[in-house]
Predict the structure.
Amino acid sequence: MADSLDFALTGLVTAYKEERNMRKHLVSALLVILAGFLFQVDRVEWLFLLLSIGLVIAFEILNSAIENVVDLASNYHFSMLAKNAKDMAAAAVLLVSGISALIGAIIFLPKIWRIFFG
């Protein structure tokens, strides 16, 4: 069990160190969490925000893993199948990120609106 946890934590650290988009997602996650405290979101809203953050980060890790495996399997030579696999993995991240942004907008925009327009 400890080995499995160590491998997973190593994967998280590797994703953070080697993937620029992972660092961007983590900064975004931190900003969303801070906004959640600032706007005093309720429990249900927290559930949606935390689930969204977790899904975006998990999908980014999976995307990076798929890219690494495809590069290894294709020996860095162009292949339409390799390109398709990488593009589809990126599309999954885009989809989850878009849905998460929509969830954030649904939660935060009414709160921001009330501040400015009462």
